[in-house]
């Protein structure tokens, strides 16, 4: 009989920083209008479903996937308009690629730099991999909230010499796109790798893909999650083969399964359909922004992503009020201090957006 419990054994064996972590919380969303996770609200069109079902039925699930995923990569190159001489590395979602990059550069004392508030996985993965994390706060600049503090970033780069810098472009959870010129200055000033994270590329007006060849320390990361494939788990890193060839050594050989490869290929063959959905979401984002902006007690922030960040007097009350009315969004209150009383809503279908607005107005009136 063991004389020690599993939990005290875990307490003794695990690294302190792991014991101190809070797991990434995913709430139960069943039965709600789900506007919390930046998913594309539109299901795969029926004509495509049949094609996918047929391909899945004929696929070799008894075999390991193609580790090089050659034909999927070819599709990705095409729909991305990848410049000549650049390559892609596939990940099980882009989260996996963040982790892979951090593992690759995490020498003792190595630092990861980002802005705050931003995507929480950067900091979490720095912790997983034992990197020092540095977050430079965003600032209010010329009336624009959550602006990049360029002098602050350049000073942090000079002082900390980060091995790895992540810039979400547009930023999550604030939704804004940092000025291209400021991002370029950060890339040029950085002694380490700079990763421009374009998770929301389909909804944004800028990209660093065309600039990849210009900077030897630039990689661009994208995911198909926000474009309608969140369930597949597929992201990619674009950059020079010199970088990707090294990172490839860290990729677990079969990280993208047979089914995600196959289904993504079919969907990307109809990339235009997905982009049309993204265009619809952008139009609906404009309308939702206007509607939120009309409410005196709501402060809504401009967005180039498929979500809107907004501030109310008492975010947690409103969040719970929305939930009671069947609408699930994201409560950012209690996270970063700059996000006090902030909520984030994903742009849904026009019907979902209408029901969200009705529930919000009702909650603002009655709690
Ligand atoms: C959603 C998101 C990701 C992660 O996407 P997955 O491919 O689903 O892992 C990465 N970066 C940012 C900024 C995101 O918002």
Biggest sheet architecture: 7 strands, mixed
CATH superfamily of the largest domain: Type I PLP-dependent aspartate aminotransferase-like (Major domain)
Please tally the β strands and state the result: 15
Q: What series of H and E elements makes up the topology?
A: HHEHHEHEHEEEHEHEEEHHHEEHEEEH
Q: What structural class is derived from the secondary structure elements?
A: alpha/beta
Strand content: 15-25%
Count of alpha and pi helical runs: 13
Structural write-up:
This protein is α/β, with parallel strands linked by helices and about 375 residues long. The chain folds into two domains: about 15-45 and about 270-365, Alpha-Beta Complex (Aspartate Aminotransferase, domain 1), CATH 3.90.1150; about 60-270, Aspartate Aminotransferase, domain 2 (3-Layer(aba) Sandwich). It contains 13 helices and 15 strands. The protein has a seven-stranded mixed sheet, with helices on both faces. The chain has a four-stranded antiparallel sheet with strand order 11-12-15-14. The protein has a two-stranded parallel sheet with strand order 1-13. A hairpin with a 6-residue loop joins β11 (about 300) and β12 (about 305-310). α3 runs antiparallel to α10 and α4 (about 70-80) packs parallel to α10. The protein starts with 5 loop residues before the first helix and ends with a helix. The model has no long low-confidence stretch (mean pLDDT about 95). The site of pyridoxal-5'-phosphate has 12 residues, from α5.
